[in-house]
Amino acid sequence: MCGISGIIGKNWNTDILDDMLKAQQHRGPDAQDTYESEDHLAGLAHNRLSIIDLTDAGKQPMSDSTSRYWLIFNGEIYNYLELKRQLDKEFNFRTRTDSEVVLYAFIKWGPVCLDKFIGMFALAIWDNKEKTLFAARDRFGVKPFHYAFDEMGNFLFASEIKALFAGGLVPKPNEKAWASYLQDGIYDHAEFSFWHGVSKLMPGHYLIFKDGKPGINKWYDLAEKTGITEDRRPINDVIEEYFTLMQQNIVFRFRSDVPVGINISGGLDSSALLSMVDNVQGEDNMVKAFTFVTGDARYDELPWVNQMIGKTKHPLSPVLLRPEDVPALAASVQYFEDEPFGGIPNLAYARIFEEARKQGVIVLLDGQGMDEQWAGYDYYRNAASGNVTQTVQGSKDRPVRPECLDNEFRLSADKAPFPKVYPDALRNLQYRDTFFTKIPRALRFNDRISMRASTELREPFLDHRLFELAFRQTEDKKIHGEQGKWLLRQLLSKHLPGKIVEAPKRPLQTPQREWLRKELKEWAEANIEGALNGFGGSWLKKEEVWKHWNGFLNGESDNSFYVWQWINMGLMRNFALSYSIIN
After folding, report:
1. What is the DSSP letter of 140?
2. From 2, 246, 302, 439, active-site residue
3. pTM (2 decimals)?
4. pLDDT tens digit string along 394-442?
5. Is 404 a catalytic residue?
6. Which residues lie across from 207 on neighbouring strands?
7. Which of 343, 312, 305, 366 is nearest to 495 (CA)?
């Protein structure tokens, strides 16, 4: 996992490229290098986190033998060995990296090569002959790719938005993004970002930049792959195919020249991950496991984790987050996120990557993706019955407070509805969560948090083949009565303790509500004050905000999402101040 950045145009100097490189050093502390084309039309920069082939041969930017094509690559192609066997008769490989496989796959197959990749990636390839940049992002958008034009007309791109700012882009808040976030709780769902003029290449898309203009094409569509027909095979046939794919994904994600560990909670997904690791690696493997705790028995999942670890005997590191850790950690995480993030659970998760890095574990696995595949959230059951009234797991209250917003500001919110690509409400909701709400947010949060600690996060269950198989299944294979993930539970019943298999979905939470009402009350109020007085201060109605804050303190809400929005605005204000953009 690395950082990529670059600039295409005629009005830039080497210092700009170097500044972009430095802004992402945390993404790749093992090596940094740049490439400038002889005509000074293109500049590429790469920060390397060495995972496969730790030698200098794997450094980037990487060229083919003719120096026509230059690659910068962020991510992992897990089936690179299989692809390399298809290519090695035609190309002379100089490294053991998956990056070189990507380069020659593109030279041989062009954009069609993307369909052959199993993995996560954001990549850019400069063609010196055609003066063209090809850039692409993986199917689910695990790895980021942002782009913008600066005031001189140069095309800038980078893994993180802060690198664009380092490259000279003038930062300005994007009212459309902020209004969508504050009014409807919608974000990370479209091309635009929280910064004016900064766009992201959407998941499953590629970009060709030529003659000063980017052209964007969609290369992957889950709905198109799964169609409107459903899989009517016997359940045992589906279970066998799914289990085989799960095993292969674990094998693929252990392809690494550095130590691999596991992030676990006590839930079904991470327990499944731990079980699959043992199934593939053998029960005597000593892969390290990490989990976070807060010291609050109402939220900590350590009893469930210990139940699994007691069976598998993996070395376990519980990582503690205390309320007094939050202010400094939140400021740090905000800097690396560039945009609003999810809350205190993200801070607890960040602690895991810090601890893993200290212990020399550079690659971590987690169980992201099962809920969206197999309808694990409680509101999916409402969708199955035709009544979607709840969209926040574990909460009955409204997640946002639009009445606290300036009326004119609210008009800036994105009005585009989520697409309905399937004939049934359940799959449309699953599709929404996969590409427009839950997964896009989680992937952004987790990419920045892992990269903050210079570690790589791999998600074995966030695999397009698993999603395609699951999305073809009938509703009754996903939901039985009040229980979601039904087929998955049948599969895992042979591998996990019964209490874990039958346990209901539990939101992965921290005492965020309790801490904000008590230990972190003053800190929260200071950030809310910053939101009211800082950029976008005119977006909020001060009296309404304080009224709802006092109501929250008095226990009038069962969720703190809207409170975190205001706190996050204060954190973002401090982040923005570092670029001197606040009046």
Report:
1. S
2. 2
3. 0.94
4. 667 899 999 999 999 999 999 888 999 999 999 999 999 999 999 999 9
5. no
6. 135, 216
7. 312
